[in-house]
Amino acid sequence: MKFQRRDGDMLRISVIDQGTGIPEAFRGRIFGKFEQADASSTRKIGGTGLGLSIVKAITEKLGGAVSFETEEGKGTSFHVDLAEGRRHHPRPYPPPHLTRKPDGRLRVLICEDESDVAAVIAALLDAEGFSSDIAPDIATATALLRSRTLGCGGLFQRHRTRYRHGNGASEVP
């Protein structure tokens, strides 16, 4: 994964692999829902074929664009281009329950089981002046919050309530 500034106020996020590349016949359909280059029952790569269509829809809602470069047998690079958003300006005196790192930056706990997604969120938060810690699951996040290593603010309480009353979702202890 690579992050670049382009043309002043544009940000490019690139995901690069050295996989099999995308066959020429499939390239025009790559962003379609449930599209897969190999839809056979014996295919080795998992997934439903929704990921790229979701990325494209979200990116376009944000006014951006998705593109790719590929070479069969060598791999593919996917690019998301977005206009840089407005800068976050934290309040000069945050509520006392917010925790700061020794360098003064506000801390955010990211609870995400996909390490690549967590890394993107952490990079975006860092660019906005926040410090972040990553927990791969709710049990680890809860343990971190209870250990007082991290502070516990209103967002965690909202998250706790939402899951307690969710449709069959497990309760956050």
Q: In angstroms, what is the radius of gyration?
A: 20 Å
Helix/sheet category? alpha+beta
Number of domains: 2
- Side by side, the strands of the main sheet go 1-2-4-3
Q: Segments where pLDDT lies below 50 for 5+ residues?
A: 156-173
Q: Which word captures the global form?
A: globular
CATH topology of the largest domain: Rossmann fold
Order of helices and strands: EEHEEEHEHH
What is the oligomeric state here? single chain
* Mean pLDDT figure: 74
Total number of strands: 6
* CATH architecture descriptor of the largest domain: 3-Layer(aba) Sandwich
Query: What is the top-level CATH class of the largest domain?
Result: Alpha Beta
- Largest sheet properties: 4 strands, antiparallel
> What is the percentage of strand-forming residues?
15-25%
Measured between the Cα atoms of the first and last residue, the distance is 34 Å
The percentage helix is: 25-40%
| Tally of helical runs | 4
